[in-house]
Amino acid sequence: MKFTAAQIAEILEGTVDGNPDTEVSKLAKIEEGTEGSLTFLSNPKYTSYIYSTNASIAIVKDDFYIEEEIDTTLIRVKDPYKAFSTLLEYYNQVKLNKSGIEQPSYISDSATYGENIYLGAFAYIGKNVKIGNDVKIYPNSYIGDNVVIGDNTVVFAGVKIYSESILGNSCVIHSGSVIGADGFGFTPDENGKYSKVPQIGNVIIEDYVDIGAGTTIDRATLGSTIIRKGVKLDNQVQIAHNVEVGENTAIAAQSGVAGSTKIGKNCLIGGQVGIAGHLTIGNKVKIQAQSGIGRNIADEDMIQGTPSFGYSDFNKSYVHFKNLPKIVERINNIEKKL
């Protein structure tokens, strides 16, 4: 797939400085650019590479000043990094622009779907499923009974969406994710034997949510597990039953949230964070990687540690943690003198 400098400039609303007919068919880092590739210059630290790169086209800031001879065709834009991201998104849309229903696949007679959908081979669509327009469901995916999927949502290969789940518009669900599996509900008797508590709720995923590969979101015991608009979940994240994750919150890989915890809006949660159940995490909270959360967190707190405590307090305490052997030795010497 080839694009000319003129075509790219039109997409990015930029201007061409050089040959508008220059063609590219791949993307590259500026220091690794080869003939036929497109790159960008955003960080001034890499400016020297603009004069040595072999990339055919480079996206630069609109006020970039050329100090040496340059062979690369430039596309001048207001924000090169944002422009390159826009181009990546456009390229991805073109690359993934599949449509039609491949065979073998199964669609229940009671299921309905909109225009321009893609259904990959060996996909299963259950009873009373409702699928919107421009939805892409890749091979080997399972869509259970009574599931609703909004417009422009992409479900990659091997995803399992259990019955009654509701997905909004423009969501992306990556391979291996499981949406709507049973919550972890068991009751022990006097002999320690566990009886399963039926999980009869569902999962609701609102618009513009991205879910990474291998992530699991459990259905509620009663009611709904809710992932609000704009949430971003990394790979291998566990969201338990009846959890609610607020708008535009991002959770990094290998983190787990236990049942019935409510997480606020615009939170940033690092990798391998463990959050206990029945807690309330406020808005704009930042939790550092590998923290263990066992208490409620107020709005805009920054947290680190296991058990977690205030970020600045953690850093102050860590200085003493590192010096603990020396401190103990000093105390022992003082005790001997006494």
UniProtKB/TrEMBL annotation:
<comment type="similarity">
    <text>Belongs to the transferase hexapeptide repeat family. LpxD subfamily.</text>
</comment>
<dbReference type="GO" id="GO:0103118">
    <property type="term" value="F:UDP-3-O-[(3R)-3-hydroxyacyl]-glucosamine N-acyltransferase activity"/>
</dbReference>
<keyword id="KW-0012">Acyltransferase</keyword>
<dbReference type="Pfam" id="PF00132">
    <property type="entry name" value="Hexapep"/>
</dbReference>
<comment type="pathway">
    <text>Bacterial outer membrane biogenesis; LPS lipid A biosynthesis.</text>
</comment>
<protein>
    <recommendedName>
        <fullName>UDP-3-O-acylglucosamine N-acyltransferase</fullName>
        <ecNumber>2.3.1.191</ecNumber>
    </recommendedName>
</protein>
<comment type="function">
    <text>Catalyzes the N-acylation of UDP-3-O-acylglucosamine using 3-hydroxyacyl-ACP as the acyl donor. Is involved in the biosynthesis of lipid A, a phosphorylated glycolipid that anchors the lipopolysaccharide to the outer membrane of the cell.</text>
</comment>
<keyword id="KW-0441">Lipid A biosynthesis</keyword>
<keyword id="KW-0443">Lipid metabolism</keyword>
<comment type="subunit">
    <text>Homotrimer.</text>
</comment>
<dbReference type="Pfam" id="PF04613">
    <property type="entry name" value="LpxD"/>
</dbReference>
<dbReference type="InterPro" id="IPR001451">
    <property type="entry name" value="Hexapep"/>
</dbReference>
<dbReference type="InterPro" id="IPR007691">
    <property type="entry name" value="LpxD"/>
</dbReference>
<keyword id="KW-0444">Lipid biosynthesis</keyword>
<keyword id="KW-0677">Repeat</keyword>
<feature type="active site" description="Proton acceptor">
    <location>
        <position position="241"/>
    </location>
</feature>
<dbReference type="InterPro" id="IPR020573">
    <property type="entry name" value="UDP_GlcNAc_AcTrfase_non-rep"/>
</dbReference>
<dbReference type="InterPro" id="IPR011004">
    <property type="entry name" value="Trimer_LpxA-like_sf"/>
</dbReference>
<feature type="domain" description="UDP-3-O-[3-hydroxymyristoyl] glucosamine N-acyltransferase non-repeat region">
    <location>
        <begin position="21"/>
        <end position="89"/>
    </location>
</feature>
<keyword id="KW-0808">Transferase</keyword>
